[in-house]
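Deliverable D2.4 — example input (structure tokens):
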């Protein structure tokens, strides 16, 4: 009797294990289907990169489904990888950019990771896509630090950052030129060492005083005479702070139920009086308003969400763009968040 009970127990455990494998396989198949549906390209190979470098790639999400998608989470398989989305809500026919970034400081050799993109459809179904990135991290070539981050820079000021590039066992290696895609930066590359097989360079990057306010995201390309690694990417990030500012930085509206409007307020300031000419971005239940034609150094912008006119549920983020009459000042983006109950 005891032997029969033990055999039944093992059979039950085997059934549970088999069922788990079927569910896992089915989940992988559904993930592959959504990946193929939404992403024209879902894998990227950075190739040979220096140890310590921070490399990034933009994947394009194209919503070819019939439902609005809300990106609820970007989760990497490794702590060396991170992701960010250009939009949180993507309607049918629209697109967004998913940036995958890999930090190579703690690895050498071949490194592959996956960025899991978790989304919620407007009908309440949770779906997932998988984006893969791969690097071959070279131990003999090191960037320190791996990227240039200016942080917050007041508009009109000139700020410098430096990084070093060192390579061993390559006496004839050298850089031949440098490429940049932005006019907001100036860069200088100077050879600092050439001793035996060791070669060193110093890269100095500056923010130009006439750089426009807003986010700074660029990638410098250092072109070398090495055919196996002809270019080295250097990621540059920062934020140019303009004359306009807003408080709070992000407005959390809390939760919205099936009925009843939810409101919140931003205070937009400048060092001199100005007029808010337009506020863009209203729609899908969101509105934004301020007294028209008023000239002042501080304005209250009231943001509201009405669930009766909004079609999307879950965690939402809305960006409003404020345009003013301050000459040369770019628009100011205001971000509001809310959780809308089903």
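Example output (designed residues):
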């Amino acid at each position: 009797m005891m032997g029969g009970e033990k055999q039944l127990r093992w059979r039950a455990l085997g059934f549970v294990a088999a069922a788990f494998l079927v569910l896992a396989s089915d989940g992988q198949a559904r993930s592959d289907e959504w990946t193929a549906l939404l992403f024209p390209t879902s894998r990227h190979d950075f190739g040979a990169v220096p140890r310590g470098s921070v490399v990034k790639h933009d994947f394009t999400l194209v919503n070819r489904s019939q439902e609005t998608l809300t990106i609820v989470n970007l989760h990497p398989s490794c702590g060396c990888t991170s992701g960010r989305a250009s939009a949180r809500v993507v309607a049918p026919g629209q697109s967004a950019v998913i940036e995958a970034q890999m930090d190579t400081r703690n690895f050498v050799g071949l490194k592959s990771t996956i960025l899991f993109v978790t989304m919620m459809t407007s009908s309440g179904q949770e779906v997932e896509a998988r984006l893969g990135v791969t690097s071959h991290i070279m131990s003999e070539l090191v960037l320190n630090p791996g990227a240039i981050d200016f942080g917050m820079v007041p508009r009109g000021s000139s700020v410098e950052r430096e990084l070093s590039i060192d390579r061993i066992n390559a006496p004839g290696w050298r850089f031949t030129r440098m490429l940049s895609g932005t006019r907001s930066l100036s860069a200088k590359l100077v050879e600092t060492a050439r001793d035996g097989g060791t070669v060193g360079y110093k890269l100095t990057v500056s923010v130009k005083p006439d750089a426009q306010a807003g986010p700074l995201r660029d990638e410098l390309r250092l072109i070398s005479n090495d055919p196996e690694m002809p270019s080295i990417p250097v990621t540059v990030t920062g934020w140019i702070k303009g004359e306009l500012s807003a408080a709070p930085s992000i407005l959390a509206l809390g939760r919205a139920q099936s009925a009843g409007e939810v409101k919140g307020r931003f205070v937009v300031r400048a060092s001199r009086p100005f007029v808010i000419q337009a506020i863009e971005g209203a729609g899908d239940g969101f509105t934004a308003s301020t007294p028209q034609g008023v000239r002042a150094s501080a304005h209250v912008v009231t943001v509201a969400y009405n669930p009766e006119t909004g079609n999307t549920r879950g965690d939402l983020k809305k960006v409003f763009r404020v345009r003013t009459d301050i000459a040369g000042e770019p628009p100011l983006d205001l971000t509001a968040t809310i959780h809308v109950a089903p």
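The chain has three domains: 24-137, 147-241, 245-340.
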